[in-house]
Amino acid sequence: MKQKILIIEDDIVFGTMLENWFKRNNYDVFLCSRVATAKQELAKKQYNLILSDLRLPDGDGIMLLQWVKEQNISAPFIIMTSYAEIKSAVAAMKLGAEDYLEKPIVLDIFKEKIEQALAKPAESVKPQIKRDKKTTSGIVLGNSVVAKKMYDQVLKLAPTKMSILILGESGTGKEYVARMIHNNSPRKDKPFIAVDCGSLLKELAPSELFGHLKGSFTSAIDNKIGVFESANGGTVFLDEVGNLYYEVQVQLLRALQEQKIRPVGSAKDIDIDVRILAATNEDLEQAISEGRFREDLYYRLNEFSLLVSPLRNRVEDIKLFAEEFLRQANEELDKNIKGFSSETIVLFEKHHWSGNLRELRNVVRRAVLFASGNEITSGDLPIFSESKIEYLPLQPGNEKEQIEAALYKARGNKSLAAQYLKIDRKTLYNKLRLYEIS
């Protein structure tokens, strides 16, 4: 079987040259120019090697590398960069990149590094399903009033069997809250399985969730145990549940109501005992009114709703979280940064944090990577607005260019890009399809 190569390169001439070289050498290759497209491919297929440029229209190679590691995708990752950016390439290797290639590429060196990377065995890991490591290391409890209220609710809800809908913006830590509920429940010694509903393909979602029998469809070469059976006795966390296809919602509703599942291709039901926690940053009531989400499923999932406040509403917690992310980054990158300057903390507390805890963690991680002194100063931080989002509302004219500019500014984050453009996410997704923007 041919080895699969994913190339992310926005220089079409150079990217096509690489694509042709791989094809001549009997590789199966996919070329794209954007981080967003690469993520879609990696969610659908398993690749043997990822080859990414450092600078891309909607982000950079280091951002993609971090995402790949977070998704437990084990394919070797090689960064391509110019001589002037070698420092960034070396930094990428500290974050887990296999190697880097300096442009212009020397063919002999290129061939040797590709062969070395492909010679390493890669584990087959599904990106959308993350199994709990049963650890609570790195947990920081906020001191703000809203944080304490939420933790109090978590401790009261955890011992019950109630299905809980966790609401909040992207990056606020909804999965972390779900794990807290599980870890404080009678199910804590049983599995916790998180599912990214946005990465489930329509055709394969029933198989991933409920399993299948060998021969039930073309690629079913063996029996498969699904998420619900694997989590029996424990907890299933459905992240971004609003992204589930309507047909799958029907099957999920039956599983919740009857506590039974039927694998694809089977004529027999399997009894299960699973607690469901779900999360979304979408308005599900609006999705119901638009016919995209089942009302009966919504009420089954939402026996109690728990709101995770955005970081900008928890200013007194920002320093606490930043210090924890600093500790984690020091450990991961083998650094010894002592802390933050007072000016840096002020900037942190003024920033809007559209990406919430995830954005704060990435900012601290990058600052630790490139810091030249023993503390993080304002000079080590990426440039961001001091307080509010800089809106880029759509104007009459070339909407496609305006949308691409917003996506670039938002580093590929569609929710944030929609905020910049002052439109809702559904409108943005419709326009992405209209203008064929990936």
Q: Layout of helices and strands, plus pairs?
A:
Elements: E1 4-8, H1 12-24, E2 28-32, H2 35-44, E3 49-53, E4 55-56, E5 59-60, H3 61-70, E6 77-82, H4 86-94, E7 99-103, H5 107-119, E8 129-131, H6 145-157, E9 164-167, H7 174-183, E10 192-196, H8 205-210, H9 227-230, E11 235-239, H10 246-258, E12 260-261, E13 270-271, E14 275-280, H11 284-289, H12 295-301, E15 304-307, H13 315-333, E16 339-340, H14 342-350, H15 356-370, E17 375-376, H16 399-409, H17 414-421, H18 425-434
Parallel strand pairs: 1-2, 1-3, 3-6, 6-7, 9-14, 9-15, 10-11, 11-14, 16-17
Antiparallel strand pairs: 4-5, 8-10, 12-13
Helix pairs in contact: 2-3, 13-14, 13-15, 16-17, 17-18
